[in-house]
Predict the structure.
Amino acid sequence: MGFILRTAWRETRSAWKRLIFFFVCIAIGVGAIVALRSVVQSVRLVLTTEARTLIAADILISSDRPWQQGTPERIAARLAAIPGTSRIDSIEMATMARPVDERAGISKVVELRAVQQGFPFYGQFTLADGRPYDHSMLRGGGALARPELLAQLGLKVGDELVIGRSRFTIRGVIGVEPGRSLSAFSLGPRVMVDYEDLAGTGLLTIGSRVVRQMLLRVPDDRIDTLTRDLQTELQPQFVRVRSYRDRQEQIGEDFLRAENYLSLVGLVIVVLGGIAVSSVTRVFVRQKIKSIAVMKCVGGTSRQILSVYLVQALGLGLAGSLAGVAFAAAAVAAIPDTLNQIGTLTVTYGLSWSAVVQGVGVGVLVSLLFAMVPLLEVRQVKPSLLLRQETTGRRADWFQIGATVVVAGALVALASWQAASLRIGLSVCLGFVGLTLVLHGLGWVLTRATLPLARSRWFPLRQAVLHLGRPGNQTRVILLAVGLGTFFIMGVRGLQVNLLSQFALQVGDTTPDLFLVDIQQDQLDGMRAFLAEHLPAGAQSTLIPVLRARVTGRGVNLEDVEDLQGRGMLSREYTITYRGGLEANETLMTGRFPRPSVGPDPLATPEGKSQDQLPEVSIEESIVERFGISVGDVMRFDVLGRPIFARVSGIRRVEWRDGRSGGFMFVFGAGTFEKAPHWYIGPVRANMPDPALRARLTHDLVVKFPNVSVIDLREVLETIRKVFGVVTVAIDVVGSLVMLTGALILVGAVAVTKFQRVYEAAIFKTLGASSRSIAAMLMVEYGLLGTLAGAVGSFGALALVWGVSRFALDIPWRPALHENAASTIVTSLLIMVIGVVASADVLTRKPLAALRAE
């Protein structure tokens, strides 16, 4: 063992310049992983806290029906078995509110919420004047209200508000309220009262549309288990149970996508570092062939020599990993203050021990795994190489092939560990293997395809082509390193673009922040004129006709209880609309959009009519998947107490995240309900950040249209934007980190081959070639390799982005072909420049010194 350690140390000392890139690759990769993981854990802590504020609890239990007998007791028993749990009861409902003075002649729809003491478990509930919320403000008939409600009713703090049979004194104006989410549509401004005061309003009667809630605070390690158990137990009772990180919640899904993306970035950095390590090791072994032959001549065995270089790789990997930790510490400490404070969130960054241990472990594993296969070539070196140069092909080395398989399996395990998913790790590794085979095949094709150019009269072109196919050439090594590097860099870039565009779609600049409800038909022209006059430039508004309808048949009758239970949610009430075409957030999947309804009475019963004369309806694709309804079926609806028959003309896919045009399960053709009583809703992008201007807009609108409810979603949107802002910054930072890391590794992968150029350049110069001719030769050679590898890697990344977006992240795939084309050009130029610059000392070195060194 002493011989192995001493020899490894001597080899490292004598060849440290050649091995420095091995060290640097590991340091960069480990530094990126440690810094990335530490930043992710810091950001995730903030995101987790902010996610809890969206439901104000760890677990939210809700039902739109009265609690069944024994249900609260069973929930209480489960909580009693878990130490450290707490519970708050809450009730939400839509109701009417008005001033005490009936002569005002105005009342508004409000979203009433009654809460117990202790609300909220998470988040900072503050009033508009900056005061913190205290439950004493609600006791004894107190109420808190949104500012837009006060503007609409002409009230102020201290005035009284009538809700049901009770009077409430307005004791404050709601500023920031935890527990509001975009997952549910709000019918009016928020009013909060004490839970004990709600019974006196007389609103909790049979048939009231009330949502009963239980907010739970649970130890973190019991959240998932308790959520699953409660979901299983309470689902038959029409009770919904979800946690703050439940994937059924859209925000929870986005958190999971961001975590998967960041884990995948860590994997990419590891693979890029491994590619560079493999390239360096392979070139190093070929440079040490004569030294290996000498050691074998004096009695060294292949096992001893292989152990020497494995210990060397292990030492370099450990040293590089420790240097990477230092690099990560410096990088995290250098994070600017602008990233520490994001909106109202404060993120404290620092290295975590788990990230350090994981980074060092990954660095050492990568060093051994990617160095193992190239080092096995030591076994093929014969002592006779000291006397002659053998260029004949050797037989297949089954041991090396077996080692390659083992390394591939270890790489899959490592990838799955980094990505926290066996499916993602396996998918990326399969893409890695597939692209490797393609690049090797393209290397062979390039060598054969360029052979005719070997007869060119231009010396640089002729020699560049000959270099591509010469014995011991680096064509496949450079193609593999550059191609895979480009593949992963553009893959990460593509995922970054898709994720950020998905976030922007939900909370972008076009997302509506005001909803107008209950606009009557005779107010339509006046409302359009009012919005055109009062909204600033750039604002967007849409007025959508709506009705309420219930599906009562499709070849079966859904009027009795048994049929309703059998069909489930198909028989619930839906909001329906009619129009003449698809909206921006819709895609026609099958059939066609409903044709306009014409004639004196398009809603007449179907007796004596053919199906072609019936009104047509387009249905959303989930209706097809859940209930088996298809194009051509005739459905029966109950609209305003009247049976309506319509034929299904087509199936649509709705992008529910895009709220600019709303979303509807059933859309009828233009004109279908023009003669029926209906109303309009208006999603509006007001583009008014100033609260005073928004309050003035709301007041003026309500004065002119007293019946219209104005729902301001700006606060909720700002909360979601704040959370997504943290995710966006994290994605931008790590995406830039991968681009930088990949560029450095590409530089090294090309620069490491310069040691083979020294002897060749010396021969050319001895024979009379100029440095300019040699530089031109290198530019042609590296330009060909860079163009081919860049094109395959860049456009191959499209398949990676599609697969990960479609199957792992479950988001739409939006290819950016212009970026892939630009990447090919940039890669070609970059490799060309790197090849020449990295060989600068080759071009300027005296031939005699190079020949003596050999």
